[in-house]
């Protein structure tokens, strides 16, 4: 499978299943504890967002989770981490099975995160951007006591504006570099990415979080790209003006979030590297996974507390990660 854009500039396909799970069930899928399964891959930054938000809001008890392996073939993400290669709840070996169960002629990409209706085995949505917003706004009756306000009403316009720029320029910007099919397209993408990172650095120099004094949806969206920057994007995607660890403000900001319960404890660096270096064979035909970089520095002091703010506002951090959902110690920083 080829990932590099043959025409030069990479253009992401954003045609997702936009069905929503809502409190009033207007799309036919009401919020119901125990009804749905969130399917993710720890390697994927888009899926990693949903793992973080589910944990921060305390939805573990009402929304089950299934983990695909770090690699996939041309056809589908697979449940190769589970016994027999079959998801224990959905009883399927490939995520594609849930898509075809609802849309027999489905021809788009099989992407994570996806939410599957357990009773029918049918996919409900893979619209990653909307999923986490709905966790914050539609699942409120099931939030844990002390859950943070990740998408507060009074800050939504600003969060949306910042998040949109993060998506186009950073989240997708690293892929625009990595999948560029010409020198000109790469040069343009590289400069565009680092202009955005410089903007973020300036924004965060004197404030602890992107919007307001607490963690919001915008921080979650930026964090998953920053966590993958040095292990993957700097080398594999040629985003190499600087490493994250050479950008003082963003590096301190990323470490601050990483050391906050709900963020770093969801990051599996081994699976992240396996995914990119093994799956993208047109970029890395040997499929050799690099040993570096040293990740212990993620746990060093960041000193961002002096900027004020409280990560959870008037709320509290989430408790320990559930058994069966923990990142193996040897895969973490």
Automatic annotation (TrEMBL):
Superkingdom field: Bacteria
Location of region: Disordered: 305-333
Domain GST C-terminal: 152-279
Segments of skewed composition (Basic and acidic residues): 322-333
InterPro entries, alphabetized: Glutathione-S-Trfase_C-like, Glutathione-S-Trfase_C_sf, Glutathione_S-Trfase, Glutathione_S-Trfase_N, GST_Omega-like_C, GST_Omega/GSH, Thioredoxin-like_sf
Any one Pfam family match given in the protein's UniProt record, by short name: GST_C_2
PANTHER family, per database record: GLUTATHIONE S-TRANSFERASE OMEGA-LIKE 1-RELATED, GLUTATHIONYL-HYDROQUINONE REDUCTASE
Protein name in UniProt: Glutathione S-transferase C-terminal domain-containing protein
Organism encoding this protein: Mycobacterium deserti
Lineage: Bacteria, Bacillati, Actinomycetota, Actinomycetes, Mycobacteriales
